[in-house]
Design a protein that fits this description.
Elements: H1 2-9, E1 14-16, E2 53-59, H2 75-89, E3 97-101, H3 107-123, E4 128-134, E5 137-141, E6 151-156, E7 162-163, E8 166-167, E9 172-174, H4 175-182, E10 190-196, E11 213-215, H5 223-228, H6 236-242, E12 251-254, E13 263-267, E14 270-273, H7 274-285, H8 291-304, E15 312-314, H9 317-320
Parallel strand pairs: 2-3, 2-4, 4-10, 10-12
Antiparallel strand pairs: 1-3, 5-6, 6-9, 7-8, 11-13, 12-15, 13-14
Protein name: Caspase family protein
Pfam family, one: Peptidase_C14
InterPro entries: Caspase-like_dom_sf, Metacaspase, Pept_C14_caspase
Length: 333
């Protein structure tokens, strides 16, 4: 599938982890790795060709219809780095990880991959899905009437484009669409979502505009559009996972509240999302800790680095008290 998509697009932005991993950047430009080797956790040992786990890591720096000044720098690194950690410490085989970057990460491509995963979950027993997404966040008018702030959170794909006063819904992923897709996960399936985007320009502060930092936020494309999405509900991410019905309850890790901004920043000469950078540091150091403990350490690091964003952990209580990458009792919180 990866090679076919590469040929169709005429690009190499789709990275299939089916052989040697990408050559690391020169030492001076690579994030300093902790001295502790990442252990392979017994409860997520590789399932080989059975395909019981699948990871889709998406990172978008460049955008087809946006000026270069609105592009980002660290999202592709986020996706590749997360894929590396999943393979090194969480039992994902190379063929169970796909990375979509830049032109390969259109809305259709991302949603098709997620739909395929949900189809597999219903047919051949996919048990663990990881979806990471690093890009711009934005807001669009709520059309379903389920948002108190009358705005839907949305995630920009490569083909993001304008339609009238707003962004074209056909060129981004709304929180409603992501929720509806994830809610197809059957009971007993572990779904972990990591979002390193931001969703409200009202959270911008001077620190976000320092050299080497860029907020991962795009306002609506016109003044009228901005007026229609002028507020943000900080509980929106909570709703993304809490509204799930009889199926699996997903676990969500988000780089900030939905009324804040996430930073694209330089660490040791290399760009990453601040949230992803600190999260992966913690997962490499000791992945056996609970999600709650790991996220507390990430928040502490963000605060120490003078990032105003407050990372969010949403999901059942049992999920918060279990290690990242591990299943939890579905009805225990």
């Amino acid at each position: 599938m990866t090679s076919v998509l590469c040929r169709v697009l005429g690009r190499e932005d789709v990275i299939g982890y089916s052989g040697a991993r990408p050559t690391p950047e020169p030492a001076a430009a690579v994030n300093p790795a902790p001295s502790i080797a990442v252990p392979v956790l017994g409860h997520v040992a590789s399932s080989g060709p059975s395909g019981e786990r699948y990871a889709l890591c998406v990172g978008i720096n460049d955008f087809q219809n946006l000026p270069r000044g609105s592009w980002l720098n660290g999202c592709v690194n986020d996706a590749k780095d997360f894929a590396e950690v999943l393979g090194a410490g969480y039992g994902f085989a190379d063929h169970q990880i796909e990375v979509l970057t830049n032109a390969a990460a259109t809305k259709a491509a991302v949603m098709d991959k997620l739909r395929e995963a949900m189809d597999r979950a219903a047919s051949d027993g996919l048990k663990h899905l990881v979806f990471t997404f690093s890009s711009h966040g934005t807001q669009i008018p709520d059309t379903s009437g389920d948002e108190a702030d009358q705005s839907d959170e949305a995630f920009a794909t490569y083909d993001l484009n304008q339609a009238g006063d707003q962004w074209d819904p056909a060129t981004l992923i709304s929180d409603d669409e992501l929720h509806d897709l994830i809610s197809r996960a059957p009971q007993g399936m572990l779904v972990e979502v990591v979002l390193d985007t931001c969703h409200s320009g009202s959270g911008l502060k001077a620190l976000d505009l320092l050299p080497g930092r860029r907020p991962r936020f795009l306002p609506p494309p016109t003044p009228i559009g901005l007026e229609r999405t002028a507020t943000a509900d900080p509980r929106a991410f909570r709703d993304l996972v809490s509204r799930s019905g009889a199926g699996a309850r997903p676990v969500l890790l988000a780089g900030c509240r939905s009324d804040q901004t996430s930073a694209d920043a330089v660490f040791e000469g290399r760009y990453n999302g601040a949230f992803t950078y600190y999260l992966l540091q913690e997962l490499r150091t000791d992945p056996t800790r609970t999600r709650k403990v790991i996220m507390a350490a990430v928040i502490k690091s963000l605060t120490k680095g003078r990032f105003d964003q407050r990372a969010q952990l949403e999901g059942p209580v049992a999920a918060k008290n279990s290690p990242w990458g591990s299943a939890f009792a579905p009805h225990s919180g």
